[in-house]
Design goal:
Chain A has five helices and seven strands. Chain A is α+β, with helices and mostly antiparallel strands and 177 residues long. Chain B is mainly α. The relative contact order of chain B is 0.20. Chain B is globular, with a radius of gyration of 12 Å. In chain B, helix 1 packs across helix 2. The chains are: A alpha+beta (177), B mainly alpha (82).
């Protein structure tokens, strides 16, 4: 049985001052609509540091959307919080996909996904790379996401139906993964 | 409704062009609307029209033009969506 492997990449940049303005203007309503509690808990420090961290995470969400390639219909609408940037204890970041984002990843046959964040001055950026694999005969995903393999170092589907993958992204000087 | 939408865009879309040069069918993303600015536009529209955009409307198509925004708001404000 032959497996077709492809790689998808997505990138995005987000203005740090734009995030600062959104926090000032909309406050918790903005924060709670876009970011998860984990992401908010990881963004600590001065207002500038918080905005830089969140801007990088917003860029990661958009970069992930470019990888997942949602269609125009309402069923493909993605809540920003369903793409979560996880800060691992070791310092790097990983992605956890839930809800529609997870469904789109399954549809794309995503077997592995990695994120790297960075920010400098007024600009934050993120790159997401995904390894996708489908069976060439029936075009069904063949990776961990589809098979629901648990508990390996390469990630898997959790009991909550979420999918997470330990990241291997490089560190930038501010410690983002 | 359209006038209020234009006012929201003028304040929150941060377009590199004057919104008065656009038509109701102009593609706002082509005019420079970023993904993050669209979040601000969404929140400002919610404030202005006292609605909340549900998840199924959180897609680029909803905010791609003034006409599309007006259609979404009309849908949200109709009695059937209450």
């Amino acid at each position: 049985m032959r497996t077709a492997i492809s790689v998808r990449a997505g990138t995005d940049v987000t203005s740090v001052p734009d995030v600062q303005r959104a926090i000032e203007r909309f406050g918790d309503r903005y924060l709670s609509r876009v970011f998860t509690q984990h992401e908010l808990s990881c963004a600590r420090g001065t207002d500038l540091v918080v905005a830089s961290s969140l801007a990088a995470r917003f860029a990661a969400k958009e970069a992930t959307l470019k990888v997942l390639r949602p269609g125009p219909g309402p069923r493909d609408a993605v809540d920003w919080r369903s793409i979560e940037v996880r800060r691992e204890e070791e310092g790097w970041c990983s992605l956890r996909l839930t809800g529609t984002a997870r469904m789109l990843a399954q549809r794309a046959g995503v077997r592995d996904i990695s994120v790297s964040l960075s920010h400098e001055g007024e600009v934050a950026t993120a790159v997401v790379v995904a390894l996708c694999g489908t069976n060439a005969q029936d075009e069904t995903p063949t990776g961990r996401l589809a098979s629901g393999v648990h508990g390996t170092s390469a990630g898997g589907t959790t009991e909550n139906g979420e999918w997470e993958r330990p990241g291997r992204g490089g560190h930038d000087k501010l410690g983002e993964g | 409704m359209e006038e209020k939408i234009w006012a929201v865009l003028a304040e929150f879309a941060r377009l590199p062009v004057d919104v008065s040069t656009l038509s109701v069918d102009s593609d706002l993303y082509r005019a420079g609307l970023t993904s993050h600015a669209s979040v601000n536009v969404m929140l400002a529209l919610e404030d202005t029209f006292d609605v909340e955009f549900p998840q199924q409307m959180l897609r680029k198509k909803t905010f791609e033009s003034v006409a599309a925004i007006e259609e979404a708001l009309t849908s949200l404000m109709s009695p059937a969506s209450a």
